[in-house]
Amino acid sequence: METGGIRLSDTNYQCIGCGVMIQTQTPEAKGYLPQSALNKGIERGEFYCQRCFRLRHYNELQDVELDEDDFLAQLDQISEDDAYVIHVLDVFDIEGSIISGLPRFIGQQPFAVAVNKVDLLPKSVKLPRLRHWVEQVLHRNGLKPEEVILVSASKGHHLENLTKVIEREVHKRNVYMVGVTNVGKSTLINRLIQHYGGDKEVITTSDTPGTTLDQIQIPLTDNYSLIDTPGLIRSNQMSYYLSREEMAQVLPRKQLKPRTFQLNPEQTLFLAGLARIDFLEGAKTAFTFYVSNDLYLHRTKLEQADTIYTKHVGDMLRPPGKPEALPELISRRIRLEADQDIAISGLGWFTVNQAVELDVWLPKGVGMSIRPAML
115 CB contacts (<8 Å, ≥6 apart)? Predict the structure, then answer.
């Protein structure tokens, strides 16, 4: 039989680690298990999906994605537990990674926010100021966490601030990690696994099929666990429309190097083929971009912008590699003040040194926000 485009056998096998249904066709989807491993599982009478298998045997947690309806169902389960929630954000995409309705779904459960990837920011950034800035953004989005913790999963920086919270809470309740895709949640949990010992006696999954429903339980005490939940897929993030190869150019892996362009009115700047900034009115202005160091930025005259985009999208203006996979660019008229950023979900942000009038072109559906300047 087939379910949602994923072929299952006539007997639906269930992972005894996370409760997901086993499938053998789509490696990046939940429940994947190679056919050869499924055959061995049939002989043994037990099944671990590849994600649980790698956790049990290699202490390595792989990310898995859920659409919004399934993700919200996961959050509803948390509201029924006596739980503490850690909402993981990406400092590179704060607004795009916020789950603004989180309190509605987790009920009265207390929560903290862990802001990941702070290692990507320039060294001049003062962490106390950044924490205060994040708190203000969260409050504007209706979130009032007990704590805001700044961390770097890839570098292991400031991990002790997060482990203090986990250890304080996990002796009295389960601790859930939630977040959208690409915030580095699984990398963060892998770092925590290393911190807590990383052997298969400690790092295990549930023994009761169907109880975790794609969640991964990492027991830290006799009674309570650190629980990973699948990431929420957001269609308003730029990465939703990109291939893995394209995402490697768009999502920064190294410390950001701000790039500044002195622009005059009637000039345009392309962020590869993914976004276009038309400078309409104002004096000569410095535009500073905080985007991946690998992302190509191209300046031209506004009168030539349409022709250049049509002619060069997919080659010089790349990504996208396949322009037809990207929604059409839609413009929005913006007045940006000197103390504000424009953040493009999943792409980065830019700021100016004085007030300007702009047309900002983005793929239809990709989110954008105007905010007080981060830096």
Answer: 89, 90, 91, 94, 130, 131, 134, 148, 149, 150, 151
Q: Which of 341, 363, 268 is nearest to 306 (CA)?
A: 268
Write down the pLDDT at residue 67: 66
pTM score of the predicted model: 0.82
CATH number at residue 191: 3.40.50.300
HEC string of 53-100? HHHHHHCCCCCCEECHHHHHHHHHHHHCCCEEEEEEEEHHHHHHHCCC
- Is the Cα torsion angle 185, 188, 192, 198 positive or negative in sign? positive
CA 177 to chain centre: 13
Q: Looking at the structure, do residues 228 and 290 belong to the same domain, yes or no?
A: no
Q: Which amino acid is at 170?
A: V
In this predicted structure, what is the pLDDT of residue 106? 87
Tally the domains of the chain: 3
User: Cα(237)–Cα(344) distance, rounded to whole angstroms?
Assistant: 8
Query: Rounded CA gap, 166 and 223, in Å?
Result: 14
Residues 161 and 213 in one domain: yes
* Domain boundary, last residue among 232, 251, 283: 232
Half-sphere exposure of residue 98: CA atoms within 13 angstroms, side-chain side = 21
How many distinct helices (H) and strands (E) make up the chain?
A: 10, 20
Task: Note the pLDDT of residue 331.
Answer: 97
Smallest Cα–Cα separation from 190: which of 55, 1, 324?
A: 55
Residues 244 and 359 grouped into a single domain? yes
Same domain for 209 and 108: yes
CB-neighbour burial class of residue 135 (10 A; exposed 0-12, middle 13-18, buried 19+): middle
DSSP-derived secondary structure letter, 327 = P
- DSSP assignment of 122-175, as one string? -TT--HHHHHHHHHHHHHHTT---S-EEE-BTTTTBTHHHHHHHHHHHTTTSEE
From 184, 202, 232, the end of a domain falls on: 232
Per the structure, the complete domain to which residue 19 belongs is given by: 2-50
Residues of the chain with pLDDT under 70: 1-11, 16-19, 59, 61-68, 198-214
CA diameter of the chain = 73
